[in-house]
Amino acid sequence: MMEEISLEALDFSALIRPGDRLVWGQGGAEPVALTTQLMTQRAKIGHFSVFVGMSLADSVTPAHTAQVRFQSYCGAARNRALAREAALDILPCHYSQLAAVLAPVDVLLLQAAQGPQGLSYSIAAEYLAPLVRSARVVIAEVNAQAPWTHGEYLDPHDIDLVVHTDRAPLAVPSAASGEVEQAIARHIAGLVEDGATLQLGLGSLPEAVLDGLRSHRDLGIHSGAIGDKVADLMEQGVITNARKTRDTGISVGGVLFGGERIYRYAHGNPCIELRSTAYTHSLEVLRSLDRLVTINSAIEVDLTGQVNAEVAGGLYVGAVGGAMDFQRGAHASRGGLPIIALPATALAGQQSRVVERLSGPVSTPRADAGLIVTEYGVADLRHCDLRERARRMVAIAHPDFRDALAQAAGV
């Protein structure tokens, strides 16, 4: 039965055993009051491990690694400092499999919101919701300022301890787009039909894509993450979800990745639902959505369509994430478009991101290649043999690198 306790009285050393694995929500879903208290008490607990997603808080820092082993699916945000110190263990699994890989959990820390229909997962359900039943201990920070969201809800009987707080949730910093991102967005906008359903990754490029779709009509959202721009386009009547073949009228996501804009808009809004990865990343669900357009980024793509979305310059900075789940979903969708988008160069134009051979792992194999988009155009690799793929990839590379790439490919 759920027990209320003050934050000051919360003694993690009485709840966590040495060697336990803890999990909490990522981005703005991190229960910061709990994680701050946890790290303050870490020496009393002994050695334990923590799975974090994309972390924004001071709870994830190399200074804590004497007692804490950190694990994640990604090397973004605060995780990057851990990666530089070789203090981050990466789980290279598809996002659809993440909850199953993590279960069972010893201790699960949640940020929740109290609303008219009880407790909601607030900012994130995704991999958290499937873990509630497998956790030995569930502690919830019920934050008075966290948005109460529709979708999946918490059963009070599944929660052991509740701490009440009143603080602004963490916000994911917005990323400004430049001319390159806007050029890529224009190419993608020309591919997207009115009434299409969108999945978008994170960063400046997806935000530029959404900005470029303001003249479209009746777009839908089914995505791992929902950000501030989605709130803008829903309010403007661009995203209505009216033509979705599933969840008509509802934007579906796993986590709110943004700030006060999306938190305020999603609060109590029945047109936004947060669901677990078992739903958002399910192939059966994705294939039932007609005209599903999935837009994900890459660090580099080779001439055959293989994608590295994980490692740059020998450092783990990205993720396997949900790109493959959504790529395959778009392939299976009637009229779907599986898109990987990236600038043609890195390091101020000195390095091509269209490459003969990847410098990192194969995050998406060439058998799952779809459409690759840079600021120089669109390479549709579907149904193409390797020679034709190379020819199309060279055409969207930066002009300074085309001759060398063509020579390497023999095209």
Descriptive notes:
The protein has 411 residues and is an alpha/beta fold. It is built from 13 helices and 28 strands. Strands 1, 2, 3, 4, 5, 6, 7, 8, 10 and 11 form a ten-stranded mixed beta sheet that branches. Strand 19 and strand 20 (307-308) form a beta hairpin. The protein starts with a strand and ends with a helix. 53% of the residues are buried. The mean pLDDT is 96.
Question: What are the defining features of this structure?
Answer:
ten-stranded mixed sheet; 411 residues; 28 strands; six-stranded mixed sheet; alpha/beta
**Structure classification:** alpha/beta
What is the number of beta strands?
Answer: 28
Strand content: 15-25%
How many helices?
13
Briefly say what this structure is:
With 411 residues, this protein is α/β, with parallel strands linked by helices.
Topology:
Blueprint: E1 3-4, E2 21-24, H1 32-40, H2 42-45, E3 48-51, E4 68-72, H3 79-84, E5 88-90, H4 98-102, E6 107-115, E7 118-120, E8 137-143, E9 150-151, E10 153-154, E11 161-165, H5 179-189, E12 197-200, H6 204-211, E13 220-221, E14 225-226, H7 228-235, E15 251-253, E16 255-256, H8 260-266, E17 272-274, H9 277-280, H10 283-287, E18 292-297, E19 300-302, E20 307-308, E21 311-312, E22 315-316, H11 323-332, E23 337-341, E24 345-346, E25 351-352, E26 354-355, E27 371-374, E28 377-380, H12 386-395, H13 399-409
Parallel strand pairs: 1-11, 2-3, 2-6, 3-4, 4-5, 6-8, 8-11, 9-17, 12-13, 12-18, 14-16, 15-17, 18-23, 19-26, 23-27
Antiparallel strand pairs: 6-7, 7-10, 19-20, 21-22, 24-25, 27-28
Helix pairs in contact: 5-6, 7-8, 12-13
